[in-house]
Write a structure and sequence with these properties.
mainly alpha, Annexin V, domain 1, 7 helices
Length: about 150
């Protein structure tokens, strides 16, 4: 193909198409209609949390000698989480504080077990009902770093 055979209109249309796709992606991300890198990272943290299954009330029972909480401590922490769901302004800091105080995923599981006994609700389901994806991702990030059963 000779140099003169290249249609300049095709080059212009191609350039506009590439520019339009790039600008369109940024517009979709700004409107929240497309995933950006941070959303992908948040979703991965949540998926890792769900795959590890340590919010299962029976997870802590799988390992003998797992480090768990006392029943009284778990009840106190469960109440803090339950009370964090407010009508006007949720207390996300209280939720983060609870999970930051835990030392193992087995303690998360035991807390989930006590939470269910006290409130007849899944701990993860309860959190998901009042925390947004960013806040759930923060909880997931805190918990995913914990060792499973022992310190």
């Amino acid at each position: 193909m000779a140099k003169d055979d290249i249609n300049p209109n095709l080059l212009i249309v191609g350039g506009l198409l590439i520019f339009g796709l790039s600008a369109g992606k940024k517009i979709l991300e700004a409107l929240g209609l497309s995933d950006d890198k941070n959303d992908t990272i948040k979703k991965e943290a949540i998926e890792n949390m769900q795959a590890a299954n340590y919010f299962d009330p029976d997870f802590y029972k799988k390992e003998t000698g797992a480090i768990i909480l006392t029943v009284a401590s778990a009840q106190r922490l469960a109440k803090i989480i339950y009370d964090a769901d407010q009508i006007i302004n949720d207390d996300e800091a209280a939720v983060y504080g609870v999970f930051q105080s835990l030392k193992t995923k087995a303690q998360v599981s035991f807390l989930a077990s006590i939470f269910f006994m006290m409130y007849k609700k899944s701990l993860l389901g309860y959190l998901s009902a009042f925390l947004d994806i960013n806040e759930i991702a923060n909880v997931a990030t805190i918990c995913n770093r914990l060792p499973s059963y022992k310190i």
